[in-house]
């Protein structure tokens, strides 16, 4: 059952609010300048390697797909697009869910197909025309 604050990535993969860590800091972008500012930059961290929320069948897939984004098994999403901290928190959660959803869905493998006879013939005809064009550029031999 999904509680308030929990995030459902895919059916059977629900991240509890307690599994997420947030860190706030001054943003260099909107809402970060000036003295009287809120800490609008949000870093949202989720421990993919050690979290009990990640199903065991999906953990190796997610770890392999997101290996360039993980630091010690922790996925970090940083957002400082908006002026308000609340808006950045919502964006960070949406980006985290998007990353995990794309990591969970395995790409479809391309089924190898053969070239059609017509495409092979067109390719060879084009090569012959090109060769003939180049041959006609040469100095004639008497």
From TrEMBL:
What protein is this chain from?
Aminoacyl-tRNA hydrolase
Which source organism does the UniProt entry give?
Cutibacterium acnes
Region annotation (Disordered) ranges: 105-142
Q: Keyword Hydrolase, does the record have it?
A: yes
- What residue range is the signal peptide? none
Family named by the database record: Belongs to the prokaryotic/mitochondrial release factor family.
Record's keyword annotation contains Iron-sulfur? no
A Gene Ontology biological process annotation? rescue of stalled ribosome
Q: Which NCBIfam families does the entry mention?
A: PRK09256.1 (NF006718)
State the InterPro entries in the record: Pep_chain_release_fac_I (IPR000352), Pep_chain_release_fac_I_sf (IPR045853)
Q: Name one Pfam family in it.
A: RF-1
Gene Ontology molecular-function annotations = peptidyl-tRNA hydrolase activity; ribosome binding; translation release factor activity
Record's keyword terms, sorted: Hydrolase
Q: Where is the composition biased (Basic residues)?
A: 107-142
């Amino acid at each position: 059952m999904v509680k308030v604050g929990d995030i459902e990535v895919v059916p059977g993969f629900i991240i509890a609010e307690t599994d997420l860590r947030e860190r706030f800091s001054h943003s260099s972008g909107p809402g970060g300048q000036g003295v009287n500012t809120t800490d609008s930059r949000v870093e949202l961290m989720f421990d993919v390697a050690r979290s009990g929320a990640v199903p065991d069948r999906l953990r190796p897939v997610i770890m392999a797909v997101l290996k360039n984004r993980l630091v010690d098994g922790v996925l970090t999403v940083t957002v400082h697009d908006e002026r308000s901290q609340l808006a950045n928190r919502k964006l960070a959660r949406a980006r985290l869910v998007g990353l995990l959803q794309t990591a969970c869905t395995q790409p479809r493998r391309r089924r190898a197909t053969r070239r059609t006879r017509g495409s092979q013939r067109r390719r060879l005809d084009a090569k012959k025309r090109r060769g003939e064009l180049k041959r006609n550029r040469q100095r004639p031999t008497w």
